[in-house]
Amino acid sequence: xxxxxxxxxxxxxxxxxxxxxxxxxxxxxxxxxxxxxxxxxxxxxxxxxxxxxxxxxxxxxxxxxxxxxxxxxxxxxxxxxxxxxxxxxxxxxxxxxxxxxxxxxxxxxxxxxxxxxxxxxxxxxxxxxxxxxxxxxxxxxxxxxxxxxxxxxxxxxxxxxxxxxxxxxxxxxxxxxxxxxxxxxxxxxxxxxxxxxxxxxxxxxxxxxxxxxxxxxxxxxxxxxxxxxxxxxxxxxxxxxxxxxxxxxxxxxxxxxxxxxxxxxxxxxxxxxxxxxxxxxxxxxxxxxxxxxxxxxxxxxxxxxxxxxxxxxxxxxxxxxxxxxxxxxxxxxxxxxxxxxxxxxxxxxxxxxxxxxxxxxxxxxxxxxxxxxxxxxxxxxxxxxxxxxxxxxxxxxxxxxxxxxxxxxxx
Length: 411
Hints:
This protein has helices at 43-72, 77-89, 92-117, 125-142, 148-177, 181-199, 237-254, 257-267, 269-274, 279-303, 316-320, 323-333, 341-362, 366-410; strands at residues 3-5, 14-18, 27-29, 36-37, 40-41. The chain is mainly α and 411 residues long. Helix 4 runs parallel beside helix 6 (181-199), helix 4 (125-142) packs across helix 10 and helix 4 packs across helix 12 (323-333). The chain is globular. Mean pLDDT is 85; it is low at 1-40.
């Protein structure tokens, strides 16, 4: 039997026609999938492993550098990291505090996943948190005595609207005026911080506090307070809301037509435009979605706090706790996947919460904790390039082996 090679290979596999059976339909020989590639697992198997292992190795390396810093200060790194772990995960109260600290990181991180996958770099989480907090607090002060079942969803939705509006501005500037979104979002952070300071100096400041004027609003209506979850800890509804937002972010990105369009624009804007997609509108939508997530975080920081008021004393950073920037790292640690950002945020929240216990236990300067977090950020961000190189190498090996299988079948 003689095999005739057909030049135009069918997309489903190699098409062969047998000369001594002319009446039979052409057959398509598709190579059986092989989970191994040249002694290594296939790309589909290796990619999630790389996404998990590389960030963990990066954090481990960062902690090793932190151990050297602790040794330089004459302290015991093992004792310090034991205190860090105990402060972050040592009991229900510690776990609740870590979850509360991780909540704004998760919300900002989900927004970062949406923006980055659309090809837009959103550095404006800080300003979007402030915008959501300002608008939601103002609405809560305007409509007091509203039933709790209505007021809590209202303040959360208003916070999302405030953050979305603040995020859509640099999105529109990039889409329609070509303004670099990194610069515009950073500038919007500064504007939001100054707006917060201005409003808390007069218009929103608490009245009747004597000669001392503290930059804080009046205590919001009790009906707007986020309910405390059962268990006797400080854990409140905001943590559940953050997880739900992460799930919605996953559905938006990977289970909806809008998400498909956003990811297509992020992957190849020119091809998306050629296919008839509204690229400019998609950029604005991505920034609005991203800002909305951060705006919800701002609302929860107000209505889930123990003071139940917006406090600007100490600057905007004292209110946001740098969640707008730390959320970026959490999203990168989670491979820009909303669901993977949940544990990533919890880990970084643990570093922040446990760092306080480490400082108290070893009596080291607070600057060391900031430096340790910075080292973790540097290592995690730097690991992205290594992760990409490993993925590309495995993918090239898989393509080369697949081509070899097809050539062997032809012969």
